UniProtKB/TrEMBL annotation:
Residues 1-30 form the signal peptide. Residues 358-380 form the Ice-binding protein C-terminal domain. NCBIfam families: HAF_rpt, PEP_CTERM. It comes from Nitrosospira multiformis. The keyword RNA-binding does not apply. It comes from the Bacteria. InterPro entries: HAF_rpt (IPR014262), Ice-binding_C (IPR013424). This is PEP-CTERM protein-sorting domain-containing protein. Keywords: Signal.
Length: 395
């Protein structure tokens, strides 16, 4: 089955981050299991936490938020299927977006008109296609390409231009290519990789600049940015390590994501406008962090590793200045903490995941330590975390 996103890239990240996790896990954390317990909008303008529900099942995962607070993601239904959803403004209500004929869909991005993109199973076994909806999630249109096994939409801008990925070969081939469409999802242009055979788009801004991660000629993975309307592809480099991964972009062309460092860490980064220069945002603890999202003021959200309780969500000030643990800004029930910040809009609303710690065997916790560091792929890169699904199907 062709799963969502690029198996090859996630396998590389999984191997890298599990090894990193093994290096920093403390004896205290080794006895803990981090369990997600809720998804919320955190309103930084005094409105507090807004709880998001489900489609009748037990699990909701969130992926994006627009400037009026409409949230999209995936939720289990009362019958156990996983369907894409959209909420109303400020997270109110949850509407099932349906599928393209199969049992599964996921919503990965939303623009300010409420147009939603993602991917959904067709009624043809083994085939998954990118989709776009009309304003406020009305109607689901197959973006194709027809006859291909797999495509996935990962970002949409306010003109309705869609960025995503497609595989023109077969469901077991790793040669994924990023694409961009015209307004309202019309047409599909292949963007190609930086140097070898594969690349993945993760976001798009209103100028049509696309960001993502690509193979390089040397065989590494590097973040990239394109020019307006997807023209050209520029390697963003790294923070001194081997690999880097782009997760999001704002309308000034500031890019955020994560990069390995010369000392073996993984750090969140921000660039200047149009992807120029890569600045290390640094972690607050444990030498591990990643950025998931950026708004037009340059406020960045993501997560960093702690020595004792897994991942904690962070937020920065404008242009990435100052990294603050989001847990210091809100009161939560005892034993609960904000583990992930998934997205941030221009109204100062942050999509968050809350978690709790429970006793767990050491080896399982060590694996979770590594898995936590693929958050920027599993969350902001707009695609269902296949590795998590395979390892923990009950979730």
């Amino acid at each position: 089955m062709k799963m969502t996103r690029n198996s090859r890239m996630q396998s590389l990240i999984l191997a890298t981050t599990i090894s990193i996790g093994l290096c920093f896990t403390s004896p205290v954390f080794a006895q803990q299991d981090v369990r997600d317990v809720g998804t919320f909008i955190l309103d930084l303008n005094g409105k507090g936490l807004i709880s998001l529900g489900t489609l009748g099942g037990s699990v909701t995962k969130v992926y994006d938020i627009n400037d009026v607070g409409q949230v999209v993601g995936i939720s289990t239904t009362a019958t156990g299927e996983r369907h894409a959803f959209i909420t109303g403004p400020n997270g109110a209500g949850m509407t099932d977006l349906g599928t393209l004929g199969g049992p599964y869909s996921i919503a990965t991005s939303i623009n300010n008109a409420g147009q939603v993109v993602g991917e959904a199973y067709l009624d043809v076994p083994g085939r998954t296609h990118a989709f776009i909806t009309g304003p406020n999630g009305v109607g689901m249109t197959d973006l194709g390409p027809q006859g291909e096994f797999w495509s996935s939409a990962t970002g949409i801008n306010n003109a309705g231009q869609v960025a995503g990925n497609r595989n023109p070969y077969d469901p077991y081939d790793f040669r994924d290519h990023p694409f961009i469409t015209g307004p309202n999802g019309v047409g599909m242009t292949d963007l190609g990789p930086l140097g070898r055979v594969s690349a993945d788009a993760t976001g798009i801004n209103d100028a049509g600049q696309v960001v993502g991660t690509s193979d390089t000629a040397a065989g590494d993975q590097h973040a990239f940015i394109t020019g307006p309307n997807g023209v050209g592809m520029t390697d963003l480099g790294t923070l001194g390590g081997v690999n880097s991964f782009a997760a999001g972009i704002n309308d000034a062309g500031q890019v955020v994501g994560a990069s390995t460092t010369a000392t073996g860490g993984m750090h969140a980064f921000i660039t200047g406008p149009n992807g120029v220069g890569m600045t290390d945002l640094g972690p607050l603890e444990a030498n591990k962090s990643y950025a998931n999202s950026i708004n037009d003021a340059g406020e960045v959200v993501g997560a960093f590793a702690t020595a004792t309780s897994g991942m904690h969500a962070f937020i920065t000030g404008p242009n990435g200045v100052g990294m603050t643990d989001l847990n210091s800004l809100v009161e939560l029930p005892a034993g609960t903490f904000i583990s992930q910040a998934i997205g941030i809009n221009n109204a100062g609303q942050v999509l968050i995941v809350t978690s709790t710690l429970v006793p767990e065997p050491e080896t399982y916790a060590l694996m979770l330590a590594g898995l936590g560091l693929i958050g920027f792929v599993a969350w902001r890169q707009k695609s269902e975390n296949r590795i998590f699904t395979i390892l923990f199907p009950e979730n």
